[in-house]
Amino acid sequence: MEELKLTSLAGRPRTVVAAGPLRLGAGFAVIAGPCSVESESQLMTIARAVKDAGADALRGGAFKPRTSPYAFQGLGLRALKILEKARRETGLPIVTEVLDPRDVSWVSEFVDVLQVGARNMQNFSLLKEVGKGSRPVLLKRGMHSTLEEWLNSAEYILSAGNPNVILCERGIRTFEVYTRNTLDLSAVPAAKELTHLPVIVDPTHGTGRVSLIESMSLAAAAAGADGLIVEVHHNPKEALSDKAQALLPAAFEAMVRRVRAVRACVESLP
Amino acid sequence: MEELKLTSLAGRPRTVVAAGPLRLGAGFAVIAGPCSVESESQLMTIARAVKDAGADALRGGAFKPRTSPYAFQGLGLRALKILEKARRETGLPIVTEVLDPRDVSWVSEFVDVLQVGARNMQNFSLLKEVGKGSRPVLLKRGMHSTLEEWLNSAEYILSAGNPNVILCERGIRTFEVYTRNTLDLSAVPAAKELTHLPVIVDPTHGTGRVSLIESMSLAAAAAGADGLIVEVHHNPKEALSDKAQALLPAAFEAMVRRVRAVRACVESLP
Amino acid sequence: MEELKLTSLAGRPRTVVAAGPLRLGAGFAVIAGPCSVESESQLMTIARAVKDAGADALRGGAFKPRTSPYAFQGLGLRALKILEKARRETGLPIVTEVLDPRDVSWVSEFVDVLQVGARNMQNFSLLKEVGKGSRPVLLKRGMHSTLEEWLNSAEYILSAGNPNVILCERGIRTFEVYTRNTLDLSAVPAAKELTHLPVIVDPTHGTGRVSLIESMSLAAAAAGADGLIVEVHHNPKEALSDKAQALLPAAFEAMVRRVRAVRACVESLP
Amino acid sequence: MEELKLTSLAGRPRTVVAAGPLRLGAGFAVIAGPCSVESESQLMTIARAVKDAGADALRGGAFKPRTSPYAFQGLGLRALKILEKARRETGLPIVTEVLDPRDVSWVSEFVDVLQVGARNMQNFSLLKEVGKGSRPVLLKRGMHSTLEEWLNSAEYILSAGNPNVILCERGIRTFEVYTRNTLDLSAVPAAKELTHLPVIVDPTHGTGRVSLIESMSLAAAAAGADGLIVEVHHNPKEALSDKAQALLPAAFEAMVRRVRAVRACVESLP
User: Fold this and answer.
1) Are residues B146 and A175, on separate chains, in Cβ contact within 8 Å?
2) Per-10-residue mean pLDDT for chain D, 270 residues long?
3) D12 domain-assigned
4) pTM of structure
5) How far apart are CA D92 and CA B211, in angstroms?
6) What CATH number is associated with residue D83?
7) Which residue from B197, B237, C270, D192 has the highest number of Cβ atoms inside 10 Å of its Cβ?
């Protein structure tokens, strides 16, 4: 763990990253929405539902990193305009992934938080580019990345000038096949003993199974995470990506209530 | 997940495994004690401390599975006699590991729960032998074992006649080096959706770092685990094994209070 | 790599392990046969075929470590008697796996080499027991085991008094699903720079795919392995275990010729 | 393995990728050079040495993907000019890594083969960009990537219009710590049974240990690889990156001779 200069906790207060009304690192934040923006009606339906359920921000993919070139790649600019409309209507700040350094600047005009996905955690050109701006960056841990590498990737962003980084544990790749990835919740307290940056958890990709998401969300809240990012879809069977792992709005709403209750309990512990 | 007959949840109520006053699967149980029994004074000191801190059972190794043949291998029979004395004084049931099928029968005379360690999860001779008796068996997940393999190992014990199996997630081996293993908490709700057996968590081996144990214990309670098994030592620096990961009694006592508070909160969720 | 005393290469010549006419560590040895002994006619057919193809020893399982208790567990004593008969007829030394320390002594009466399987690499009771005798031990690397742990397991056997250990790389468990395991051929030269013991390779379990076995066998010979252990079956589709990965005798025969040619080439390199 | 259209072997002859005098997929090609271009004298010294040793192409990094933002990041354009000079003098085609889609077009003016590194194997913007040109692309397997994902990444390049893809196995990340990565040689014949593209091996990153490189190179040749990419440095201790794993020119020269002898042997097998 050499070479961490700006992300190190040593001698620094914990960072709160703000994006509109969203405060990451102060209280417990819930970011929710569909994997991909598929249409205006789909996104608006889900946006209203997650707002009503108590989400603090809306996620939705405009550019999708898909294993195959023949899979749905996202609606691009059209998705961003739909996301903008959802923000106007719901007041929720928008989180979306960028894949290409050439997109960082103009996509930043549309959204509140830029996500760097797991596959791009060591895409150093992209890290430097999001580091040049001031839009908060949600930096997912690579599925093959050590804690040390993850924090060094954050260091790339901070050293380029942008202090607004949110770390997100989303599961690592192991031999286990029952879950899509192995959610490494110990990475939350581990990261927080090394860095001042907020750390959230993605139980959707971390497990890949709807039935495990609530348990892992409760566990994340108890482990000290600063929030969650969760996939919600009103009609998962017809989703264009990640069909098997999106929560229905009603299940999400119930989960948010339970997670906030556990979090309140943990914060009140003597 | 074919071939699970007796461990499958389908059509069965959840199992409660009893060992003296210990009830695994009803409420939240905490098993604690040193990695190895080192001496009578060491074990009695720790036994009293974990009893006072609210532990439900005492763990202590008599036979130690060590990577090197030249490392401390445990006190064997002498340790069992010391554990017996600790039970007499504290009333705590005793959990200890067996390594050899030839030891199962006579060690069962001394202790309340037989542990099958991670390295022996697919030691089928040992599984069959502990299956022939009725002593409860704490079956740790192998560090390289899938959920399916783990449940099949439980099936070996049940199919040999012993229904009293407690599953224990203790971390799997991954590329991450910051933690000793990667604690796979999703294995708790995953196992519980497949089997009626109780599932507990070992945050000590699961993380290998004292600083992460409480967070992971709170998370385990929130994720629905039926209990914890934790290493406690009054003088970790002088411990003969696992120096770096044992909690001091005071830290353990505070943790147990917090874990039980989180558990009560989770159980009261609507 | 501390604590290796007897397995360390430092200051020692390379060990040749002899079992009847088999010499491991001098030349290139090929051990072949079915996963399980299923019947006398099955075993004798395969024994003659591998003998004709140039194998140096016959493998065949009498006690099978199976994930499920309901899978075929081997013919036990009956298998050993069949193996004995095959030795009488073909002159090939016999390699078979032992699972239980109680079986070591009497099984040693029937066979020439005792195999300790991957799942038992850290079954320390079994290691100590095979260490008490003088029958050569083929010690497979655990699917989750580091080089250091593997060599320490050999050290258990040597320190108990038996110097005749053959190491066998058989693939480790990774995230890759195309192959059954990931054959770690670098473990061959790595082990040979640390220990004087011979090292062979199991391309059958290492890949789990018939189509890859010859390529990996050629690679093993080129990498400096002291031999191979390969599954051969005259009727793989009807095999009681490991159906998908056994070579037909004709393919095995052609492969042995090619492997020996590559080995001769490698040994003649300036 | 759905969705492979253009990279699939089915119904297609094997591809030969040409870059100047280099032919990948016809014979056995050796690409060698330093990790990073550090200075003109360093690069020219090494270029002459690898040329004399029989290399077919020169590798050298101009843009380095480093874990930490404070590590040496490469000389950029200056390195490219030095590489160009080396090509003029030695006639060796140049292989260099690109990290950013904005660099693809202009870097292509300087070099013969563009490398996409392991960390960028799923940087889909970069894949699409190198797919738009016609410069051959050396696509390294991600350290966390399955065979299926690797081939799908090649599919991105082919489907964008560039048929000139060379696959390169460079080791995957596992729990083993003795080697830097675990070189998965079975990926060579596995890839070749699925795709018509040539497949080479990087034993330098695959092992991370100088002492293992020759054995793994011989094994790669025996396993059917179409070539090697190897780090060579005349003064490894003073290298600005990857100090511990570069071969000295003399060792490289001896290795090339042996590898070609093994390859000739394998090709002459009946």
Assistant:
1) yes
2) 86 96 96 97 98 98 95 96 98 98 97 98 98 97 97 98 98 97 98 98 97 98 98 91 89 98 94
3) no
4) 0.97
5) 54
6) 3.20.20.70
7) B197
